[in-house]
């Protein structure tokens, strides 16, 4: 099936400008700026998988980013508390009911059971089995104090 699409010179100009900027970055080996995407996080984990132990750097230009991080953390905490408050109020409205219909929305608060391996007890009581099946991984933990 064919569809006619009218030429859009403004869109073409915008795409051409983006392409030129992109190609300039390729030619000058300029990486894209870091952002909050999963791709940026994965790249940083690949580029810097391990810290050089006990090494330190001083970067006062990090101070505005620390402020941004802490403000976002506070906003995230506030949003999480608001979300939890709404969830708890909805649960109180539902009581022992599993399903609540509100307009065109359906809320469920179901019973779930699961089984988990208690690795601490296994390590204590059967260390040979624990060591046979344990898998180790390493990562870098980010924190600001």
Descriptive notes:
- The relative contact order is 0.06.
- The protein starts with 8 loop residues before the first helix and ends in a 12-residue tail after the last helix.
- By secondary structure, the chain is mainly alpha-helical.
- Helix 4 packs across helix 5 (127-133).
- The chain has a two-stranded antiparallel ribbon with strand order 1-2.
- It has helices spanning 9-27, 38-47, 63-94, 119-125, 127-133, and strands at residues 99-102, 105-108.
- Helix content is 52%, strand content 6%.
- It contains five helices and two strands; from the N terminus they run H-H-H-E-E-H-H.
- The chain has a domain at 62-132.
- It is extended, with a radius of gyration of 26 Å.
Summarize the structure.
By secondary structure, the protein is mainly alpha-helical.
């Amino acid at each position: 099936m064919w569809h006619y699409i009218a030429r859009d010179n403004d869109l073409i100009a915008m795409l051409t400008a983006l392409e030129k900027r992109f190609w300039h970055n390729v030619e000058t080996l300029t990486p894209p700026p870091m952002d909050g995407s999963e791709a940026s996080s994965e790249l940083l984990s690949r580029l810097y998988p391990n810290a050089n132990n006990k090494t330190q750097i001083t970067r006062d230009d990090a101070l505005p980013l620390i402020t941004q991080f802490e403000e976002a953390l506070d906003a995230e905490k506030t949003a999480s508390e608001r979300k939890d408050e709404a969830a708890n109020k909805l649960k109180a409205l539902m009581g022992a009911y599993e399903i609540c219909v509100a307009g065109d929305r359906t809320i469920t608060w179901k019973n779930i059971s699961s089984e988990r391996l208690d690795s601490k007890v296994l390590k204590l009581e059967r260390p040979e089995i624990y060591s046979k099946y344990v898998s180790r991984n390493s990562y870098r933990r980010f924190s600001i104090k």
